[in-house]
Amino acid sequence: MNALNKLLTSAAIGLAVGVTSFSAVAETPANMLVIAHRIDDVTTVDPAESFEFAGSDISRNVYGRLVNLDPADLAAGYQPDLAESWEVSEDGKSITFTMREGVKFHSGNPVTAEDAAFSLQRAVILNKTPAFILTQFGFTPENATETIKADGNTLTITTDKKYATSFVLNCLTATIGGIVDKAVVMANEVDGDMGNTWLKTNSAGSGPYILNSWKPNESVTLTSNPEYYGGAPAMERVIVRHVTESASQRLLLERGDIDIARNLNPEDIAGVMSADGVKVDDELKGRLMYLALNQKHPVLSKPEVRQAFKYLIDYEGMRDSFLKGQYTIHQNFLPATYLGASEENPFSYNIEKAKELLAAAGVEGLEVEIGVREAQERIEIGQAFQNAAAQAGIKVNITVGTAKQILARYRARELDVYLGAWGPDYPDPQTNAGTFAYNPDNSDEANATGLLAWRTGWDAGGLTEKVEAAVTEGDREKRVQMYLDIQEEFREISPFVMMFQQIEQSALRDNVANWSTGQAVTAAAYWQVTK
Amino acid sequence: MAFAEDGNGGRPDRAPLSHKLWPLVRGTVMTLSSIAVTLLGLLFVTFIIGRVMPIDPVLAIVGERASQETYNEVYLQLGLDKPLLVQFFYYLWDVLHLDFGISLLNARPVSEDIARVFPATLELATIGIIIGVVLGVPLGVLAAVRKGSWIDQVARVLALVGYSMPIFWLGLMGLLVFYGILGWVGGPGRVGIFYIDVVPSVTGLILVDALLDGNWDVFKDAFSHIILPASLLGYYSLAYVSRMTRSFMLEQLSAEYVTTARVKGMSEWDVVWKHAFKNIRVQLITVIALSYAGLLEGSVLTEIIFSWPGIGSYITTALLSADMNAVLGGTVVVGLIFILLNIFSDLLYKVFDPRAK
Amino acid sequence: MMAETQTLREWLLTETPTSRRHAKISAVYQGWLSFRSNTMAMIGLAILVLLVFVAAAAPLLSPHDPFVQDLGNRLLPLGTGGHILGTDSLGRDILSRLIYGARITLYIVALVALIAPIAGLLVGTVSGYVGGWTDTVLMRVTDIFLAFPRLVLALAFVAALGAGIENAVLAISLTAWPPYARIARAETLTIRSSDFISAIQLQGAGPLRIITGHIWPLCISSLIVRVTLDMAGIILAAAGLGFLGLGAQPPSPEWGAMISEGRRFILDHWWVATMPGLAIFTVSLAFNLLGDGLRDVLDPKAGE
Fold first, then answer.
1. Quick check: is B311 in a domain?
2. What span, in angstroms and rounded, lies between the C-alpha atoms of A141 and A118?
3. Residue A401: domain span
4. CB neighbours of A502 closer than 8 A, spacing ≥ 6?
5. Is residue B268's pLDDT more than 50?
6. Who's near A342: CB < 8 A, 6+ residues apart?
7. Rounded mean pLDDT of chain A?
8. Which of A219, A500, B65, B259 qualifies as a FRET site for B242, CA 20 to 30 Å off?
């Protein structure tokens, strides 16, 4: 038996030695940026189709656009990118872009007006989910070749009516405005898909980075484009690694195995601040957290009840506890920093007031179901709300489900209450106004599942026309005032309880400078980052 | 009950197969047809589950903002308007041609995805089972030989703790202590970030690929990443393997021939290893095979905590986003492995177990 | 009094039972004696008795309301502000939640212990007794369910029916029955060919009576052992579903869901996830200890 004992001991020692010999504190190389991020939402990297957060990050760094936002100065709004300049026609319907000379795609092909026209036409013709960003200007698969035209070094787009120029150009800064390499894309066309299948997993852009590989739920690897017209990026290699757990991201950062952790929860942010060599960057994002009260529900559709729910949210309590540092109170549908965004937050946590309103509406023994997505912060918001509602005599049952499950029921107008989050699609007020406060046909047959107002069963209470008017107003000051008015009315009458706006907290190693997640208006950019 | 408990030692024991010895040919045909029937059933059940789930595969593709028009287009593209049975037969036809279809979510062939994630699980499970067997078998033998001694008690406690510990808790704590505080092992993921894609992927098993490439740095790094999650899985199979070894050994040690051998003056070492242990080999291999099959299913919770891109988390993610092609593909692969390991252990019984003859 | 117990003891330990009932009771008592001498098993039993007591007396035992939130006093460490085990992310008392959570754990355990073995017993005995095509078909179905990745099956089931504690129980049962069917079938095959069954058949008993009256009782002891040993796995499975957000719905204090909520704070507020983890561990351990002891008593050949 001694031999056995020896065997056991030596096995144990061997294991221990094997493990310990590898301990070493790591540091990432100076020319490499390593980011931990949840990237499980990426389903495609084709700019005509990509519509999720992590996918937009890839697109922003790989594809140039006609006009773009400068990560160093996002407040400046759209700036020339692949288009050097543009002119608006007399009637305000046409914009003519002059292309920048000497810019090359990653393939070495020159970037031409023809490529730009092809890219926009392609997005319209493929008609994937984000296509509405372009088709709202009247472009259709049928008229795309007429309305989007290249001529020599210029590209002209013609909209169906006059829109605010800033609205049109803002939309072109979205992911769908990415300019693809026509020759390369068409060389990879299969069955007339305009290269869609190929571009889902490959890239053909002219931006500062080249996509090396995207392994779903694993990693994204980018290499710098030394020929980038704006100068070769300092970080020659960028690796985004999929790490779901906040604790794991924090350990990686503290050990120096990554440079940036993007999904730390408030507790880990607090913990990481006291660690050596780590700093935290705050950026206000566009994502809003709200409750939608189904207007097909006989009780929830009463004006007093809608009002009462707005007093049943412990705004400050939540902001200062489990949402600490990552959400700020915001009770309007336009995110702060957007043109015309209102800063008024009139509602506060007031059970008594809510009770009065409920009594005035004659509501007693109300029981409602709230659908919540499987995400801790949302489950906690749901529970805090449940707790407050109970004090006002409303029984709230929480149903937690996967994103797709809950969303499907919301789209089918089946949920009593939906706890939702909404991020703007492009940096123009129309993006949110056109979904929260716009619903031309509230009938079931209309099936306008893309509109939040429709999903909530709300006819938008006369705001539809006002939204339509605001989007065509050319005068900036007037437009701002119109949005302020719409938001004021919306706050009082809408069945949406707007609660919070997101703040993204990135934890960085000390030596990382110029990091930008794109604030409320765009996605993350890597090319200006230095270490 | 291993599913939540990643690898608590795999499948429950099962009764030995029929004791009759069929003619070889008939046996083979029966075996093959039973594999086919089981696989078909497996596919059918998975397929039905996929279709009755209230998760909308169309929504999974088009996303929240899609208009009804885009939605309808994709709905028709996926053939969801056809009757269920027709959809199933289409699917079956493709599978027979080794085509698992395209992942609805990332537009890649499912077979390609599985070829990427399965080696990760294979590597983890293999090292896990090696740890479990290398430590668990001697421990079980020792516990049986010295029944009632302190080592038996230690083995018992080790096993019971292994059976009873929530793996997600142990995993997080292990990561905190051995990676976060002590820095002895690599963090989450299969390799450190600068080693990603350094060695060419031949087998998909990073340790093997690194050896083939002769790149010791990558090998060391990958080893330091795999050792913690593998030890964790190894511990769970150790709990099971050591308990089973102990009870098999006790049965043998109380048998008459052992007493006879002892009376004849045979050394204790020879009695234990040359006689008793030799007789439990087949049973033991069955236990190990089933335990291994359990680990190969993919240990979802371990994979989540260690950011390990394996088949368990692949199937789960796919399931939760209604990517049915991926779920079906993954299920077929996992089911097939289970069935094969099962048949392998049945064969062992038939060939080696004297009682089966 | 003393003398009477002595007689009772003697009566129980007699080697010459006076009736069948006497023999049965005597056997049970002897089993109990051998079980009682197993300290580990007794510890397990004691823990489980305590668990039942805690669950029954939850309202009396818990120091706070398990559902009352206090956002100002969240994540308090152990022993602060009258919270012995601290508070969770919404400021709820962890100890009180654990105490109420014991009820849910017992509920799950009881339901699964009822559904899975009975389903397995039914399939296994019918398959083993009837044989032929029925056997082939039923065993093929059992094989299919065995070959299924269990997590996929349970997840799919819960996803299809909606998250919730009852559905979680059903899902776990659905994945747990095949091994029982296998065991029951194997036992049935041995019993079926035994002489006493042939004797009963000759007396004209129908298959239904033979299965329910004679085969089931003989299968039960090995099933009980098996179920007890599986119980820990069942609790962990339920916790795993809770961990993935598919078990009990909030604000229910299900232990697995509590770990899941608390794991976000594991680096700085370790107790939030650790306390429910310890609770799960203790109860699982108790079931394992008990199962080990029961196996020694009821099924000696498998145990030693």
1. yes
2. 12
3. 284-504
4. A284, A285, A286, A287, A288, A289, A326, A327, A421
5. yes
6. A332, A334, A483, A484, A487, A488, A491
7. 90
8. B259
> CB–CB of B67 and A213 under 8 A?
no
* Phi and psi torsions of B294, nearest 5°: -60, -40
The DSSP secondary structure of A10-49, one letter per residue, reads HHHHHHHHHHHTT-------TTEEEEEE--TT-----TTT
The residue in chain B having the minimum alpha-carbon distance to the alpha carbon of residue A131 is B66
Query: Are B307 and A244 inside 8 Å of each other by CB?
Result: yes
Q: How many domains does chain A have?
A: 2
Q: How many domains does chain B have?
A: 2
The model carries a pTM of 0.83
- Touching C (3+ Cβ pairs <8 A), the chains are A, B
The first and second tokens of residue A24, run together, are 């070493």
Range of the domain at B57: 17-96
Cβ <8 Å between B107 and A44: yes
The answer to whether position A125 is within a domain reads yes
Look at residue B4 and give its three-state secondary structure.
coil
**pLDDT on residue A327:** 96
CATH dotted code for C27-298: 1.10.3720.10
- Give the ipTM of the model, two decimals please: 0.77
Is B21 within a domain? yes
Chain-centroid distance of CA B194 in Å reads: 29
Candidate from B63, B131, B231 with C-beta closest to A129 = B63
Q: Which of A4, A201, A257 is facing B193, going by the closest CB pair?
A: A257
Chains that touch A (3 or more CB pairs under 8 A): B, C
How far apart, in whole angstroms, are the C-alpha atoms of residue A275 and residue C267? Answer: 13
Q: Are strands A417-422 and A278-293 parallel, antiparallel or unpaired?
A: antiparallel
In a domain, A347, yes or no: yes
> Quick one: B191 and B277 in the same domain?
yes
* pLDDT by 10-residue block (mean), chain C, 304 residues: 62 77 80 80 92 93 91 88 89 94 90 90 90 87 81 75 81 87 85 81 82 82 80 78 74 85 82 88 88 74 42
Interface with chain C: mutation pick from B1, B114, B177, B245, highest number of C CBs within 10 Å: B1
Residue B101 lies in a domain: no
* Domain end position, chosen among B64, B96, B128: B96
